[in-house]
UniProtKB/TrEMBL annotation:
GO terms for molecular function: GTP binding; metal ion binding; nucleotidyltransferase activity. Keywords: Cytoplasm, GTP-binding, Magnesium, Metal-binding, Molybdenum cofactor biosynthesis, Nucleotide-binding, Transferase. It comes from Pyricularia oryzae (strain 70-15 / ATCC MYA-4617 / FGSC 8958). Gene3D superfamilies: Spore Coat Polysaccharide Biosynthesis Protein SpsA, Chain A. The keyword Metal-binding applies. InterPro entries: MobA-like_NTP_Trfase, Molybde_CF_guanTrfase, Nucleotide-diphossugar_trans. This is Bifunctional molybdenum cofactor biosynthesis protein. CDD domains: MobA (cd02503).
Length: 266
């Protein structure tokens, strides 16, 4: 049982998709602040690092015109930037014993202002990573999913089947930006994009990728009724944030309580 729940993560690399203009949000999505004050991209980078402890680097894909904070600017200018162990949650510190073992951020940019097609949509970020490391299989997490848990990423890893594996959300749509992409799948995306078709979802369908159902997260009481508190049932790990209204819905909840709720019911 232990071997099934602890897959080999060493061959995968974690990639946070944070590029794009966030037009519908009205502000850079990756720089949104969670209720506890953490920036969204740092919170998700730590989640990725916990899922891939063997990778000393968390890669973050940005568009050439993305707004950068100090850490991202440092990572861009110097090649990589340490995520301070002091910023990590207690559970994360199990894999960051000291500053030298702390994860690093490495920024991957798209090709630049002369490739406007690649600066739009998530395909740009996926392909930037693939072109930098063409033989790597990537564990993908987009900034659209503020409540994604390490447990959910571990499920992806343990059930992964090449060429691509992702989840299906509560509405029945596949989520190719919370997924594992092999070089084969990324080559297909590159081919499609060159022919004007940059949809990651289309690649999942074309390659008959494995689509996982979200695990049942509901606990029932003695009367057979679901147990929820503070409306947390509305915020699943696949809660998708694209607009200011959606963000206000998510950030209005106690983020840590939401995460504890879903981890406990996993």
């Amino acid at each position: 049982m232990e071997s099934n729940s602890t897959p080999r993560y060493g061959s995968m690399r974690p990639l946070l998709l944070a590029g794009g203009k966030s037009t519908r949000m009205g502000s850079p999505k990756h720089l949104l602040s969670l209720p506890d004050g953490q920036l969204l991209y740092l919170h998700l980078a730590k989640t990725l690092h916990t899922a891939c402890p063997d990778s000393g680097t968390v890669f973050i894909s940005l568009a050439h015109d993305s707004i950068l904070d100090h850490s991202l600017r440092t990572a861009t200018e110097q090649g990589r930037s340490i995520l301070s162990p002091g910023d990590l949650q207690p559970s994360d510190r199990l894999v960051t014993l000291n500053e030298h073992n702390a994860p690093h951020l490495k920024v991957l940019m798209d090709k630049g202002k002369d490739t406007r097609q690649e600066s739009t949509g998530p395909a740009a970020g996926l392909l930037a990573a693939h072109r930098a490391y063409p033989d790597v299989t990537w564990l993908i997490l987009a900034c659209d999913f503020p409540f994604c848990t390490t447990e959910l990423l571990h499920q992806l890893q343990s059930e992964y089947q090449p060429p691509v594996t992702c989840f299906r959300n509560d509405k029945g749509f596949i989520e190719p930006l919370l997924a594992i992409w092999s070089p084969e799948a990324l080559r297909r995306l590159e081919h499609n994009t060159a022919n004007g078709k940059s949809s990651p979802s289309a690649v999942v369908r074309q390659l008959s990728g494995l689509v996982l159902a979200l695990p049942r997260q509901t606990r029932f009481n003695e009367d057979g009724e679901p147990e929820f508190t503070d409306g947390l049932e509305k915020l699943s790990p696949l809660f998708n944030v694209n607009t200011k209204e959606e963000w206000e819905t998510g950030s209005g909840a106690d983020t840590k309580a939401v995460l504890r709720h879903w981890v406990a019911f996993h």
